[in-house]
Amino acid sequence: MSRVLAIHAHPDDVEILAGGTMALLRRAGHTVTIATMSAGDCGSADRSAEEISGMRRKEAKAAAGLIGADYRWCGFFDLAIFNDDVSRRRVTEVLRVTRPDIVVTASPVDYMADHENTSALVKDACFAAPAALYATGSPQPANALISIPHLYYMDPLTGRYPDETDAIRDFCVDVGEVFATKQAMLANHVSQREWLRRHHGMDDYMLQMETSTRSSGETSGFQFGECFRQYRGHPYPQTPLLQDLLGVAIKVIPNKGST
Ligand SMILES: [Zn+2]
């Protein structure tokens, strides 16, 4: 059995972009941790940052709990995720504690800096985690990893880059069988739904997720899908470990994969 860490910037990002895939992996008996860099402390118009981040941590934990996954907050704050020395050490410690074989993170190009900086931090933390002399500064540091984990990128939030080009994708996962679970996971994020209604003018959070999951599935003839890209930069693992774990649920998207 493998250990999978799905780590993105904010509570709900993983559920929207990879919740079905995480449900499939759990169903197959793999260990899944869902981590968010921030706890969503800016996502309210009428509650304190402390109050809303506490609520959102509970919502994220409940969402992860639906599939038997753990939830972890990495201690960052909204709009304050930067690719710097202290942050890289902190993310490296998260990797050393969770000890994943597979890491799935944010697209390197997306609509906001928190997402892009998360992507860069996680990529470099994967590289740093096996370097035993790289100290994380944790009071009780975990041991270095044995090797660099397999690294995958989720889609950007809309499935397209901000310049309107299509996201680069290597394969699509058929999440039709677990789509109801994915919906139930996202439905736990009650406070975020309210915030998006006010701040983004988004009437129906759930419908938006359904539309984007349907659209991703269309790339591969699935009713509902989630697409991913494997990072194959030197010296990251090249073998298709996540694809192999998902087996027949995936369809490779031709001529799109690259580093
Ligand atoms: Zn986000």
Percent strand equals 15-25%
The biggest sheet, with number of strands, parallel, antiparallel or mixed sense and barrel status, is:
8 strands, mixed
**Cα gyration radius (Å):** 17 Å
The name CATH uses for the topology is Rossmann fold
Instruction: Specify the CATH homologous superfamily.
Output: LmbE-like
Number of domains: 1
**What spatial form do the alpha-carbon principal axes imply?**
globular
What does this molecule look like?
This protein is of the alpha/beta class and 259 residues long. The protein has one domain (3-252): 3-Layer(aba) Sandwich (Rossmann fold). 39% of the residues lie in helices and 17% in strands. It is built from eight helices and eight strands, in the order E-H-E-H-E-H-E-H-E-E-H-H-H-E-H-E. It has helices at 13-27, 49-65, 85-98, 113-128, 179-187, 190-199, 205-218, 241-246, and strands at 3-8, 31-38, 70-76, 102-105, 150-154, 171-174, 225-230, 250-252. Strands 3-2-1-4-5-7-6-8 form an eight-stranded mixed β-sheet, sandwiched between helices. Strand 1, helix 1 and strand 2 form a beta-alpha-beta unit. Helix 3 (85-98) crosses helix 4 (113-128). It starts with a strand and ends in a 7-residue tail after the last strand. The mean pLDDT is 95. The structure holds zinc ion. Zinc ion (ZN) binds next to loops. Residues 9-10, 13, 115 line the site of zinc ion.
